[in-house]
Amino acid sequence: MTRAAVALGLAGALAAWGWDLAGRAPAPIVALAVLPIGGWALVGTPPARRAGVPVAALVAAFLWGAAAAAPLSAHVNEACRDAIGTSLDFGGRWNAVATVVGPVVEELAKAVPLLLLPLLRRRGARPVPWGLALGAASGLGFAATENVVYLTIAAFQGGMPGLLQAVWARGVLSGFKHALFTATLGAGLGLAAIETSRARAWAAALAGLVGSLVQHAAWNGLASPLVQDILCDRPAPGEACATSAGGGSLFVWTPAVVALALVPGLAAIAWLLRDHGARPDPAAD
Predict the structure, then answer these.
(1) Nearest alpha-carbon partner for 120 in 129, 108, 107
(2) Statement: the pTM of the whole predicted model exceeds 0.90
């Protein structure tokens, strides 16, 4: 009975989220925003299930990122842009918020499901893989909602070529970035939950937070503008962007930038899973 109630509640929440997205953008844009994220979710679900994370927990974390963290972050970021104005002189107020404020706001908003880690540990769960899985699920939900906004802008500004380029860059190539950032924080909090030393626990949690923020800020401040410039593919310096980027820009240089920005974080998570994902947590016995 309890499982049926949980399933019904999650199904209703998913339906409400989908209905909300349908009111924000045309159905094809919503589908193009969500489907690549679903593909990344399929990649990440098997290792999460092997770690014992229930599907319901993953769906709940996804819904938090999609229906709560994304709109909340958008409102806070907008308020910060209005409040900051031009007082931070390092490339304009959008860059100030995107590089400094945005990562903090968004990572803290996405991290709410991770507050359950201490409780889950007492019930025998392994905090490190659980932290990684819940953080990644929340990040994927966040990306799904965020991508609807950006794909709508891309379609308005660049028509079908702009929309397809945005799907490729934001959905296929880098659709897992928010999952990676918040999974890093989840790993740090998971390590903190199994540490017996309070000092080491605080250090692990701080390392996870700093790691997530540094990756997020580096993406927003360096990698994302570079990808945008590559996809602009100007015929000559100073000219308007090309109608559609060339093959080299789409399939060589953009993937190279994404790999340089995100693969180090993926390697760190793979290393953590090697040490903490396959064996039980002795402290939970």
Answers:
(1) 129
(2) yes
